[in-house]
Design goal:
Elements: H1 7-17, H2 23-28, E1 34-41, E2 45-46, H3 50-60, E3 63-66, E4 73-74, E5 79-86, H4 87-119, E6 126-129, H5 138-147, E7 151-152, E8 161-163, H6 165-168, H7 176-186, E9 192-196, H8 199-207, E10 212-216, H9 220-233, E11 238-242, H10 250-256, E12 260-263, E13 274-280
Parallel strand pairs: 6-7, 6-12, 8-9, 9-10, 10-11, 11-12
Antiparallel strand pairs: 1-5, 1-13, 2-4, 3-5
GO molecular function: nicotinate-nucleotide diphosphorylase (carboxylating) activity
Family: Belongs to the NadC/ModD family.
Keywords: Glycosyltransferase, Transferase
Length: 281
């Protein structure tokens, strides 16, 4: 996968951790000694942002061989990258690269678990992750969920149409069909997505012409009922299940007939453990 974090961002991560050099390495007098570092999976994981980790180590002053690209499923002990260079350069990059990999791989691994659970039931279902990333970490998070097999639900407010109840409160006297028509006139190339909280509301907006009904916090049983109701009333409408979806219930929502699962769960996933070995070359 292409890199998501440009060099100036990687440089800023290094500067944040090592603003004035590594005092310990300098004081010990070992900064210039030749060294070798390997990063490997300690647990089973789907690796993400290994390209950025490798580039970060390079920016620190070492030569790097990338051994596992983003999206690779690794077993314990499988290598991710190997680096050679001065001990000072490798010590500088060590923790930043490790932490970046651990956080991103946690996101990718949980994403892959959701994708696998849902597609075991419905092979064509899409898993879409929301824009609710940690502020400032969107590029990292989006690449990680894509490494896990998901797609972005919304990258931000600028490129999608998603009508919430909070929008509709300003349009109490406007019929759903007119709201949909207004959106199509303004931005005809976009799909119209409407979030609903109940079956009747979902049916009404589908009949009004919404392309996608985003069913917020529906149970799998409620999703199944909505899908059944739309088969005759609005068969072209896509049902997207959203809210509280993770590896444990993704299969149930897929079985219920949702064509898209919308989730934020990967962004708060536990980081995966990456083992670092660093010593003389």
């Amino acid at each position: 996968m292409p890199t998501a974090l440009p060099d100036h961002v990687l440089d800023a991560l290094l500067a944040d951790d090592v603003p004035f050099g590594d005092l310990t390495t300098h004081a010990l007098g070992i900064s210039g000694q030749p060294a070798r570092m390997t990063l490997a999976a300690r647990d089973r994981l789907v690796v993400a942002l290994s390209e950025e980790a490798a580039r970060l180590v390079e920016r620190s002053g070492a030569a790097v061989t990338l051994l596992a690209g983003s999206g690779a499923a690794l077993a314990p002990g499988d290598p991710i990258l190997e680096a050679r260079g001065p001990a000072g350069a490798l010590h500088r990059a060590w923790k930043v690269a490790q932490t970046l990999l651990e956080i991103a791989s946690g996101i990718a691994t949980t994403t892959r678990a959701i994708v696998a659970a849902a597609r075991a039931v419905a092979p064509d279902i899409a898993i879409a992750c929301t824009r609710k990333t940690v502020p400032g970490a969107k590029a990292l998070s989006i690449k990680a969920i894509m490494a896990g097999g998901a797609v972005p639900h919304r990258l931000g407010l600028s490129e999608t149409l998603l009508v919430f109840e909070e929008h509709r409160r300003f349009l109490k006297d406007v019929a759903p069909a007119e709201i949909v028509a207004r959106l199509r006139r303004a931005v005809p190339e976009k799909k119209v997505v409407v979030e609903v909280a109940g079956l009747d509301e979902g049916l009404a907006w589908a009949q009004a012409g919404a392309d996608v009904i985003q069913a917020e916090k529906f149970s799998p049983e409620a999703i199944a009922a909505l899908v059944a109701a739309l088969k005759n009333a609005a068969p072209a409408t896509i049902v997207a299940a959203a809210g509280g979806i993770g590896p444990d219930n993704a299969a149930a929502y897929a079985t219920a007939g949702a064509r898209v699962l919308v989730t934020s769960a990967p962004y708060t996933a536990k980081p995966r453990d990456v083992q670092v070995t660093l010593g003389p070359a």
